[in-house]
Amino acid sequence: MMRRRNPGWSRGIAAILSLGMFTGLAVGTPAVLRPQPVAAAWTDQENGNATITAGTVPNPTNLTCTLNGLLGAVASITLTWKTTVPPPAIFRIGIVAGGNGTPTSGNVTATPTLVSGTQDTYTATIPVDLLTSLLTSLLGSTATLGVSGTAGSNWVSPGWARAEVKIVLLGLLLGSSCTPL
Predict the structure, then answer these.
(1) How many other C-beta atoms lie within 10 A of the C-beta of residue 88?
(2) pTM of the model
(3) φ, ψ of residue 134 in degrees (nearest 5)
(4) Are strands 113-114 and 141-151 parallel, antiparallel or unpaired?
């Protein structure tokens, strides 16, 4: 004899399973669709090499000089030169000796003015009071005035742009001269 199934029992199980699936979907769906944080890392190793060459501060070139007077006496010296040192450039100016321009005395630091309309021409007017030691040694004599470029506190150009300055006795402008070397 075949046993008859209880239709209520089957319906009850079906209802419980349906309710469980519905509840699982309703509760589980947001968790499944929501992005979850993930810890990830990437590493990529690159190797390279390079050759580094130290630069040099270029020497100023094309130096010209003009003696400026006040009441017939030398009051200042205007120097004009070319360089590839970018603005704002700093230059040393002073009395130099020998072909390499070794500074001997009268060194001053000047911040020149870029000549209007140029990219590489600078001018500086040095008042007599800044070159006291220069004038003391030049009265009635000849000396070499030099301009050297600097970069930072320890980089200087290897040479100097030079001009011969001749000041006649008593520092008179008449008869004094400044000639580029």
Answers:
(1) 8
(2) 0.62
(3) -65, -50
(4) unpaired
φ, ψ (nearest 5 deg) of residue 46: -120, 140
Summarised one tens digit per residue, pLDDT across range 144-165 is: 888 888 877 778 888 888 888 8
82 forms beta bridges with: 61, 121
SS (H, E, C) the chain: CCCCCCHHHHHHHHHHHHHHHHHHHHHHHHHHHCCCCCCCCCCCCCCCCCCCCCCCCCCCEEEEEEEEEECCEEEEEEEEEECCCCCCCEEEEEEEECCCCEEEEEEEEECCEECCCCCCEEEEEEEHHHHHHHHHHHCCEEEEEEEEEEECCCEECCCCEEEEEEECHHHECCCCEEEEC
Residue 60: count of CB within 10 angstroms of its CB: 27
pLDDT at site 97: 75
**Which positions of the chain have pLDDT values less than 50?**
none
CA distance 138 to 172: 11
Listed in sequence order, the residues at least 6 apart from 82 whose beta carbon sits closer than 8 Å to its beta carbon are 60, 61, 62, 120, 121, 122
